[in-house]
């Protein structure tokens, strides 16, 4: 929870991105506690590894291209904290009063193991096309970032 707060409160956007990676890693720990090791591994590989790396790359590229620094500004921290508190209360009340959470609390924790076979069938059978489309889009973003970075170095020298 402290890492998630640091993502929002740090003025240095690069450090905030690093704390985002830590927050995503701790989310993988929650998957381990929920007896879903495959989802934890996917969380670490995709979100902590790939997405956090792409965010940090985007920060470096935008700093080069737009000639801006690494600092983000919270102009009114009291207003920002109040808005975050109101949003937290709204989300907490919504989740606490939802039917699916009441059903989970009434039944209790699951004793079944969410294995690789069940997760792969649930993800890949009905969603194989969107899964492949997302990988192509991420590849295009990576190639675009490399082209932008290469153009900047060619014009700079």
Protein described:
The chain is mainly α and 157 residues long. It has one domain. The protein contains 6 helices and no strands. The model has no long low-confidence stretch (mean pLDDT 79).
The count of domains is 1
The total beta strand count reads 0
State the distance separating the first and last CA atoms.
Answer: 45 Å
Q: Would you list the SSEs in sequence order as H and E?
A: HHHHHH
Q: Helical element count? A: 6
Q: Nearest-angstrom radius of gyration?
A: 20 Å
Low-confidence stretches: none
Instruction: Report the average pLDDT across residues.
Output: 79
Tertiary shape? flat
Largest sheet: none
Write the layout of secondary structure elements.
Blueprint: H1 2-9, H2 13-33, H3 37-66, H4 77-96, H5 99-107, H6 116-156
At a glance:
With 157 residues, the protein is mainly α. 82% of the residues lie in helices and 0% in strands.
Brief descriptors of the model:
single chain, mainly alpha
């Amino acid at each position: 929870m402290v890492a998630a707060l640091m993502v929002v409160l740090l003025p240095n956007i690069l450090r905030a991105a690093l704390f985002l990676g830590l927050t995503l890693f701790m989310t993988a720990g929650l998957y381990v506690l929920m007896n879903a090791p495959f989802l934890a591994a996917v969380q670490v590989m995709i979100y902590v590894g790939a997405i956090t790396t792409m965010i940090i790359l985007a920060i470096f590229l935008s700093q080069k291209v737009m000639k801006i620094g690494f600092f983000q500004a919270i102009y009114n921290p009291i207003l920002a904290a109040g808005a975050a508190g109101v949003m937290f209360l709204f989300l907490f009340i919504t989740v606490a009063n939802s039917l699916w959470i009441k059903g989970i609390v009434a039944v209790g924790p699951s004793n079944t193991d969410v294995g690789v076979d069940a997760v792969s069938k649930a993800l890949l059978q009905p969603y194989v096309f969107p899964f492949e489309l997302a990988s192509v889009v991420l590849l295009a973003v990576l190639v675009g970032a490399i082209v932008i970075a290469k153009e900047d170095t060619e014009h700079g020298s």
